[in-house]
Design a protein that fits this description.
4 domains, about 55% helix
């Protein structure tokens, strides 16, 4: 076997060097990472660097490649997401660097004689223009973002996220320089290498086909129940199945993670079931069953109550607030909600707590906080709940000026419609106007660009938007977006404002009805409406613009 496959630990300074020239084979899937994944990558690496003062290494997983010995050509069979994401990270660091020598060093991670990573043909030009060429990470696409593929949008959004983070206060030049050294010297991957693509694909296919496909919930169930004494397993399984009937598999596994958070009060890299087994001493008689009956089941019942979105439509305020939390993130806020219910039953205090919690979660998401910062904020909030601080005095529920300004900046972005939460923000703004239009779905509810992203040369839109640049500068902004039924969206299409206006006036959606009050549609009106919608949202959350 040692002659068929070789395995070795490779530091990033070698992985992104002339030793490897990566290309993507035909069966490799598209780049699918989004800002949550790229944010976690940056945060985890930075956290590891700071925790050890850059002295301990950081493992970035395993790659499978097809590569002949002594030759640089390398088919990247498994590991595309990480290699592309690291390429984005090095490219952004390069373009933020002012030291010419360090710029050259960083550029060498992205390209040598040629680019280090050759994507599939459909992505090659975009990667060259917006990532791989020096200075490219500061270049915005000139084309309509909707004309880009999902992969291209992921690359651009992740690149922009990294640029925003790495140019912020947490990453002054000296920290970025330390990060470059840490990435180069201390970060590594395990590279499993075979001779050719088909051989590598065969290994990968065999591994996937012979692996038992359990859900995360199933794995946790089997692992935990296997630890308890045999005589208690049937009772444990009964409790587990009753909870799963309430929540479903995805929420079951998530709830285990929330209870681990409540137990440990810190992040953990261990599998959830190991942490729970150790923390609750599952191998002791009665301990596992006690956990399931006295902690897991009550928590499952509380979470099931919060998930019943239908209750939010009958006038009871708390389920309505929890439903809005679910729109923007289904899990982040749950540990705080569960702990609150354990410690406080006052209905007025509870409603105030959830309203402030909703505001916090939405603002962190809109501001683009990385997942680790969001999780740490919730961990700090748990401490305030422990200390029975009133929600009115909880510092972790307050919106700082920095958080407000970061969120407002993203809401004012000229490419707002490309953000993954754009549709949910429109829904939340509409709710501030008194109407929940429901989720954005192609068959029932769509986003309409009032100023079309493209129109005929002699269109009336040319009066106020005479160039492609002017259209690009305004068409993707929050103030240019509204909600329409699919049928009305098709009717509106690229017709002039005078013809669109009656469609908006007749719309069933209040966001479009209000829009029709404008006499004309100009750049100034788009900017003005952007500020109006931000003010509306912030007023609902009691935030000063």
């Amino acid at each position: 076997m040692h002659e068929v496959i070789s395995v070795k630990v490779v530091p990033l300074k070698e992985l992104f060097s002339d030793v490897y020239e990566f290309r993507l084979p035909y069966f490799q899937r598209a780049y699918a990472w989004q800002t949550a994944e790229i944010g976690r990558l940056l945060s985890d690496i930075t956290q590891a660097m700071r925790a050890s003062d850059g002295k301990r290494g950081y493992f970035l997983g395993k790659l499978m490649v097809a590569k002949k010995q002594g030759q640089p050509e390398t088919a990247l069979v498994d590991g595309h997401q990480r290699v592309m994401s690291l390429t984005l990270l090095f490219a952004v660091l390069r373009d933020l660097e002012s030291n010419p020598a360090l710029q050259i060093r960083l550029n060498d991670f992205v390209r040598g004689n040629s680019v280090r990573l050759k994507p599939q043909d459909a992505m090659a030009l975009s990667c060259e223009r917006f990532v791989q060429t020096p200075g490219a990470t500061a270049v915005e696409p000139e084309d309509d973002l909707d004309l880009l593929s999902e992969t291209e949008r992921n690359v651009i959004e992740n690149r922009n996220y990294l640029r925003t983070e790495l140019s912020g206060a947490d990453y002054p030049p000296e920290v970025r320089h330390a990060l470059v050294t840490y990435l180069s010297e201390r970060c590594c991957v395990i590279v499993a290498s075979v001779e050719d693509d088909e051989e590598a694909w065969s290994f990968l296919r065999t591994e996937e086909e012979t692996r038992v496909d359990f859900s995360k919930s199933d794995r946790a169930k089997f692992s935990l129940i296997a630890i308890v004494p045999p005589g208690e397993r049937a009772a444990c399984q009964k409790v587990w199945e009753s909870c799963e009937a309430l929540l479903g598999a995805a929420d079951m596994h998530a709830l285990l993670g929330h209870l681990r958070t409540l137990k440990r009060r810190r992040s953990s890299g261990k599998p959830i079931e190991i942490d729970l087994a150790e923390g609750y001493k599952f191998n002791s008689p009665g301990a596992g069953l006690s956990f399931l009956e006295n902690q897991f089941k009550p928590a499952a019942e509380r979470l099931a109550m919060l998930r019943k979105s239908s209750e939010g439509r009958d006038g009871r305020p708390l389920p309505a607030v929890s439903e809005r939390l679910k729109w923007i993130d289904p899990q982040l806020w749950v540990p705080a909600a569960l702990l609150w219910f354990e410690r406080n039953q006052d209905p007025d205090e509870t409603l105030l707590f959830f309203r402030k919690l909703e505001r916090l979660i939405w603002m962190m998401k809109i501001a683009g906080f990385d997942p680790t910062k969001q999780s740490n904020r919730i961990l700090q909030l748990l401490g305030e709940i422990d200390r029975t601080v009133s929600p009115a005095k909880m510092r972790e529920l307050e919106i700082t000026n920095a958080l407000r300004d970061a969120a407002a900046s993203n809401l004012r972005s000229p490419t707002f419609d490309a953000k993954h939460y754009s549709g949910r923000v429109l829904r939340r703004v509409s709710l501030s106007l008194g109407q929940d239009p429901g989720p954005i779905e192609r068959t029932t509810l769509t986003i309409e660009h009032v100023l079309p992203r493209g129109f005929a040369p002699k269109s009336g839109w040319r009066t106020h938007f005479p160039s492609a640049r002017s259209v690009r500068d305004y068409s993707h902004r929050l103030g240019n977006l509204t909600l329409l039924s699919p049928e009305d969206n098709q009717r509106a299409d690229t017709i002039d404002w005078a013809d669109k206006r009656p469609i908006f006036a007749r719309s069933q959606y209040v966001l479009s009805q209000k829009l029709a009050e404008a006499e004309s549609w100009t750049p100034a009106r788009i900017l003005e409406r952007t500020e109006e919608l931000i003010a509306l949202l912030f007023k609902d959350w009691d935030i000063k613009v």
